[in-house]
Amino acid sequence: MSMTIHVDVVSAEGHLFSGQGEMVYAPAVMGEIGIAPRHTPLVTRLKAGEVRVDPGQGKEMEHFYVSGGMIEVQPHVVTVLADTAVRAADLDEAAAQEAKRRAEDALANRTADIELAKAQAELNEAMAQLRAIDRLRKTKR
Fold it and tell me: Do domains 5-88 and 92-140 have the same CATH topology?
């Protein structure tokens, strides 16, 4: 039997996932991190992107989109505290494309620094959603 780690994915909207995994991959601010059972304790910020939980034993990987937040790692527990979290399969590609287009328009027509920062954040979030959708598509093939 392989070692596993307990994983919880939680957002302001509610509890999204609770289960066991052999590996967890998350988009930390300084780069993607991989977490295995007995990982050294860690707390770090997450950027918008995809959290993946590999349950092992030939089961299909769980994919989640997070807009940011925090991840807490303990030797036998990983907790993802996301600002917003959605199962990657539930992402709306058309809505993400539209958000990307609006953000690009706002960047092109900006009138204030605050609008620039907001438009850049919205563009980053839309691009992260589209990357999660694309990665999920590739894994289903």
Answer: no
pLDDT tens for each residue of 87-118: 877 766 676 677 777 777 777 776 666 666 77
Q: Which DSSP letter does residue 89 get?
A: G
Dihedral pair phi/psi, residue 49, rounded to 5°: 165, -160
pLDDT tens across 29-63, in order? 999 999 999 999 999 999 988 999 999 888 989 99
For 99, the token pair is 């958000």
User: Which CATH code for domain 92-140?
Assistant: 1.20.5
pLDDT at 137: 67
pTM: 0.72
- With beta carbons less than 8 A apart as the criterion, state whether 129 and 87 touch: no
CATH superfamily of 5-88: F0F1 ATP synthase delta/epsilon subunit, N-terminal (2.60.15.10)
Q: Tell me the three-class secondary structure of 114-133, residue by residue.
A: HHHHHHHHHHHHHHHHHHHH
